[in-house]
Amino acid sequence: MNAAAPATVNNLGSELKPAGAAAAKVKPCCVCKDEKAARDECMLFSKTDNAQQECQDMVSRYRSCMAGYGFSIP
What superkingdom does the record give (predicted)? Predict the structure, then answer.
C-alpha cells in the first residue's frame, strides 16, 4: 500500500488558491455591497411610477463604486 503524504495546515487547498494577480482580483459580488443594497432597496420600494429616475443618484454611486474596482456596468 502506498500512503499518501500527510496533510498539513500549510498545504491544504494550496493548489486551489490562485497566485499572483489572480489572487488580487476581486469578484463583482464581493464589492460595493452597501451601494448595491441601497440601490436595490430604492428600486424595489419606490412609490413613484419612474423608479429609475427617482433612484438615479444611487445607481450612479453603485456604477462609480464598481468602476473603481475595474467593472463596467452599462
Answer: Eukaryota
Angle between helices 56-68 and 33-44 (to 10 degrees): 160
Show Cβ contacts of residue 27 under 8 Å, excluding neighbours closer than 6 positions. Answer: none
> In angstroms, rounded to a whole number, what is the distance separating the alpha carbons of residues 68 and 23?
18
Tens digits of residue pLDDT in 18-55: 555 555 688 999 999 999 999 999 999 999 999 999 99
Q: Do the domain assignments include residue 13?
A: no
Give me the amino acid identity at 51.
A
Domain enclosing residue 55, as ranges: 25-68
Q: Is 11 part of a structural domain of the chain?
A: no
Side chain identity at residue 38, one-letter code: A
